[in-house]
Amino acid sequence: MLADSKGRTPRAIADDQLLWLWRCFVHPAGFGRARTVLAEHGTVLMDGVPGSGRNTAAWMLLYELRSGTQAIHELLPEDEDSPRRLDTDRVGDGDLLLLDLSEIREQLWTDIQDELSSLRKAVLEHGARLVVVLPWHRIERVRTDLDRYRVEIGRPQGLEVVRRYLRVEGVPGAQIASQPKALSAFLDTNPSIRQIADFAGLIVGARTTSQGKGEFTEWCKSAGDAQTGLGTEVAHEVAVLREGPQRALLLATAMLQGSRAESIHRAGVSLLRAVKHPPEQHSLLEGADLAERFTKIKAEPDGSGRVRFTQFGYDAAVRAHFWKHMPELRDHLNVWVADAVDTAALDVRDRDTLVERFVEQCLRDGYPDMVSSSVSQWTREPTTNARLQAAAKALEAGLSHKDLGRFFRRQIYTWSQMRLPDRFGQVLVVLCFEVMAVRHPDEAVVRLHHLARRERGAPHAREALVRLIGDTPRLHRLMLDRLVYAFTGSTGREWQADVDLFLHVADPAPFTDVGTRGHAPIAEPVVRGQLIAGWNVVFQRRQHETWSRQVRKWLLTAADDERHRDLLLDVLVGGGGERTDVLSRLYVLARDVSHLMSGTPDERRRRALLVDVLRQKINTVLGIFAA
User: The pTM is what?
Assistant: First the structure.
């Protein structure tokens, strides 16, 4: 559902983007010292002027430490009604953690600073690494006990950032040795590193549009014009084009630049219907042909028959003009997008382009609620596969947005607690697993849990949740906390899915893994109490055919793991309570395990010992003592 034209999933795309960013990255002043502090203390506090690239530097510090496909996990400050601002339970063994505080308010900074020492302690205990991006405009300075971990990051040279970007994009170094006037004028405005990267992207786009022809000077000028100089020109052209069909074709071309002429034409006609424009009265043979109509809006087909404006950056300027100066049109665009993606005139790439450019306009001007409203309309039954895919692409763009991603994570949280159409629920499952879990796995777990409770058909959410948890001890612990709270808390509602989820979560492996701290979770009394409570619910609500397979795994683990044997058996017996039917079934399963003929003599001896140990524990619970 979310794969791109190359078949890559969002997880693969995220990895590719980090690799690309690493190749483009220019090490700023202070980066080497930050690397040293992180290596020696496990924590570094990144300071620096806004726009200096300190956020990118933070990502790159952690990217250097990755092994294989290990993800960088973003920590998020808790809401104001939470007892703690920083949840240390979200730190796992060997995690690479990023805490971005660059945009937080002063009061929140004061609260969080008081908890940073506790967070750093948890990081050290788990052998993790933590990079914190500090707020710059802060009244309260970094406390003395934390200041030793603070490193100020300088701003890399803008010209070097541009040149590195262009070299990575395949532009030969000899072509970019000069510093054209347009580039100098842009750099003289003291842009942020993000703005510099965007400008470099425009230069690459100008070069691509010209098919590599021309000079570096021309590409820079086109990039400068695209960034600042086309708004007035577009406004003039729109004023000249007074007829509705002309403007519809202009906007459709801007939204679908790079698509085939017929596809853009059909999208323009669809736009006219969406805004209820009256049909044209003259004969079809009397009007201008399509080639002439494209010429009037300064567009033409390229060598492959795909239509583009003749001036680089003109499409973005047209989109911005209609969005800004015709606000009454916005309410019709989501209807138009839904109708357009649902036609055979657009291929998959065209559909994705249309959705992405619609969302781009919404988010650029701060209208995330328009995206969520559109998604709700597109997924309302009866819907189609094309509309569902459009909804998925729109939410993917929203979740990936640096400033508004949190809005969409909260929106999905709200949706996950509602009874949704089955197919919309499946869209949210994919987004949680493929997009949200890449950077925010804890939040993905919470939303998948809510979806799993409410799904009525195939268990897509439950299967995705089990896959996401995998063998990650921290996520197992989070899920165990949620399930036991539901079992023992005063939530007022029992979810049948929770019992099945507990059987998946209660795999003995993560609870007997000693990890980096030298002791397994099952050695903690709190964890044992939670597991006992969970097993107690399972034994009460399910027949033994349902839980016997998982219990068998616990017994085999108890037989082989002498260090944790007593603890594993205590949990099972404690979960059974004084129910003789459950305890007798545990004993039968243990005896079956002891009779397994496979394995070495030592393994068979340990299995036989298991039966004796379990019998003693059962007798103790039932008050049966040897004479």
Answer: 0.89
